[in-house]
Design brief:
2 domains; four-stranded mixed sheet; disordered N terminus
């Protein structure tokens, strides 16, 4: 009897040791992983491609608050569009019923500095016109209508490029109002070294094609007009484009 008790004691100790070594049970990973290319906090007017995994299945994405965040399907991507301040739960579902999600928040940013009164809005027009041509070439290849230039959008884009910054700010949208565009719009920007770059316009467009969120801006179906801007500072090219969307409201109007 003592021998059996000793055996049972050893077994119990072994089971307890195994449980302690195993540690607490880990929570299972979500069935669908969802992220945002530009992070979980966006500014009004920004667009951010959703990063969904695993790659392959066809997904449906929904927003709990379309007044703050709407979702658009661009080719095989889902793009979150920040409309106004607020928070939205984004839910992604596949055909099997598996789900995943994330929370996106739209915030107002600090006001940007006023533009320089000495800004020349007509500079680098040859490069800017080539950018317009290439943007419309991309749209044609995807079955979309070409966008005519608009003077107010051209001026706004050149003003914004002249600020020499590398991130979107409320000033982008304030410039639309300043130069007379009465609706909302979406911007793309890029900055790169201008030395030894034989084709500034092509380089900018290629960067945007390679980025799902920027590519989606060029392919915005609701867009009616386009504007471009290019400024050279300290050996760098600051390139901007804006598509005017008459169906949207400028949050800074």
């Amino acid at each position: 009897m003592k021998r059996n008790s000793k055996v049972f004691g050893m077994l119990a100790a072994g089971i307890l040791s195994a449980a302690l070594l195993a540690g607490p049970a880990l929570a299972a990973d979500p069935e669908i992983r969802v992220g945002s290319y530009k992070g979980n906090t966006l500014e009004a007017g920004e667009r951010s491609c959703l990063i969904i995994g695993p790659v392959g299945p066809e997904y449906i994405a929904e927003s709990s608050n379309p007044e703050a965040i709407t979702l658009e399907r661009v080719l095989t991507y889902w793009v979150a569009v920040a409309r106004a301040e607020g928070t939205a739960e984004i839910t992604v579902t596949d055909k099997a019923g598996s789900t995943g999600g994330l929370t996106l928040t739209v915030e107002a940013a600090e006001p940007s500095p006023a533009p320089s009164e000495a800004l020349d809005l007509s500079v680098n027009m040859d490069i800017r016109l080539e950018m317009v041509r290439l943007i419309n070439e991309v749209r044609r290849e995807n079955g979309l209508a070409e966008l005519p230039m608009d003077e107010s959008l051209m001026n706004a884009a050149q003003d914004v490029s002249g600020q020499g910054v590398t991130e979107h700010r409320p000033y982008d949208h304030m410039a639309l109002i300043r130069y007379g565009w009465p609706h909302g719009g979406l911007y793309n920007l890029t900055m790169f070294g201008a030395y030894d770059c034989p084709d500034i316009a092509r380089q900018a467009i290629d960067y945007w094609i390679a980025s799902p969120g920027h590519y989606a801006t060029m392919l915005l179906e609701e867009a009616s007009h386009v504007g471009t801007g290019v400024t050279f500072q300290n050996g760098r090219a600051y390139c901007y484009m804006v598509v005017g969307d008459p169906t949207s409201h400028n949050p800074y109007e």
